[in-house]
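Lab notes, practical 5.
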Amino acid sequence: MDDRARRRAALAQGMRNGIPIALGYFAVSFALGIAAKKAGLSPVQGFLASLLCNASAGEYAGFRVIAARSGLLTMAVMTFVANARYLLMSTAMSQRVDPNGRAIHRFLMSFFITDEFFAITIARPGYLDPFYHYGAVLVASPCWALGTALGCVAGELLPAQVVSALGVALFGMFLAVIVPPARKDKVIAGLILLCFAASFAMSRLPVVSGLSEGTRTILLTVVIASGAAALFPHEEKDTQEVES
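Output from the prediction step:
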């Protein structure tokens, strides 16, 4: 298979795998559009906000800052804290990028890092294929922006129970990401259960429960990932072997 055909195949596969992400994004961003409307944003502004900011927590924090009429510095700090976990994802992805690849691909992939894009991209063996990543982005990102715009228009007309139920699709998508590797590897299954238990405990324990959700996620990621890397290291060939 020549390089052009390989790129087309990776792009097509990324678009197929991006469909469930797009469905989850559309449902959740619809509810996010309600927050945008309450903050005074128009549907067009909500659409552009989601198109240019690929982070639900960061967007929601930004909308809350706008609604409170706070300053730009407050917004910058809030969105940085809410999105700081993407620094960890970027670091993990940078270790899997082809060292001979073009810098433009590194830049574009880093801009389109979300929990879901990271999960499906990092799960593939070998060096990361930027065209697979782009395929998923091309399908899912417009749905994220469109859902926000429609939420601005019609979100407030729906009952609160309906809006809350729309978020279920995203949880189903996360299960689809973690269940297959957990069935193949007992270590991964154990770490997933540990993550669930630790996350629940940190939301209830004194002191740490007062931290923001994003901060707790960062702490758990660093501690559990570091422990897993030390106890269950992968051989170098497993991460650098290029997929045939």
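Observations recorded by the TA: Residues 237-244 have pLDDT under 50 and may be disordered. The CA atoms of residues 223 and 229 lie 10 Å apart.
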